[in-house]
Amino acid sequence: MSRFDRLSALISRFSLSVSPATGEEANLIVFSPPGSDVPNRVLLSPLRLICSPEQADYVPMFRACTDWGGQANPLLSALPPLIELDISDNAETVMLVRLLKAEGDAQRCGFGSVLNRLGEVLMVRLLRAQIEQGATEPGLLNGLSDARISRAIVAIHERPEKVWRNEEFAQIAGLSLSRFAELFVQVVGETPMAYLRRWRMVLARQDVERGERIQTVARRYGYGSGEALSRAFRRQFGESPLALRREAAADLQTV
């Protein structure tokens, strides 16, 4: 029997990437003890650069820039400003980081693709650590850390087009309706339907940026018409989906 997967349905919607960076551009840094080539510490700042000069106990051995697939990725607002992971006792992650460094140093044919894939694995491992650790504030990571609420969140991520009812979410979570509604707000910081609407808007924005028709996107995510989607879209993002599609098309023409 396969184990419950909290992350794949969310991560699969975004193109995570990692590329080598200088000290001024990095938001992912791997450290090792002085005089050693064995990594023992990872720092990640999802939204900003890391200013971390060499210290007595740690020496930067690999720097990279991570891209989470756009600002709409809900993980960006859910993650703490700085993630620190001690990997000294994690042989698999140590091996992964050493492979990352070797590829970044050698820069042989196809190294960019290899870095992306290895970097994505590292970011997933960092996310797992955050979920296992739990969050102190209400939000997505806190919800994914909860054994019951996470099942409802994953259902939303996997089937955003479904006409959901709170009763169905409660059943998936194995809770009474009243307890589920109370716990979801307590853990995530918003109601299940509010989170569902926000997730649909994130996906709708991606589809619009790819140039899909507004009416098609509206039907896909349960909106009765293109006008209904446009109203919800404007409330969420401050502009119409048609305006965003035009901007995306113009950006492609200038590349």
From TrEMBL:
Pfam assignment, any one: Cupin_6
Cross-referenced InterPro entries: AraC_lig (IPR032783), AraC_XylS_family_regulators (IPR050204), Homeodomain-like_sf (IPR009057), HTH_AraC (IPR018060), HTH_AraC-typ_CS (IPR018062)
Source taxon at top rank: Bacteria
GO MF assignments: DNA-binding transcription factor activity; sequence-specific DNA binding
Presence of the UniProt keyword Transcription regulation in the record: yes
Keyword Transcription regulation found: yes
Domain HTH araC/xylS-type per the UniProt entry, residue ranges: 150-247
PANTHER family reported for this sequence: ARAC FAMILY TRANSCRIPTIONAL REGULATOR (PTHR46796:SF7), HTH-TYPE TRANSCRIPTIONAL ACTIVATOR RHAS-RELATED (PTHR46796)
Listed name of the protein: AraC family transcriptional regulator
Organism listed in the record: Pontibacterium sinense
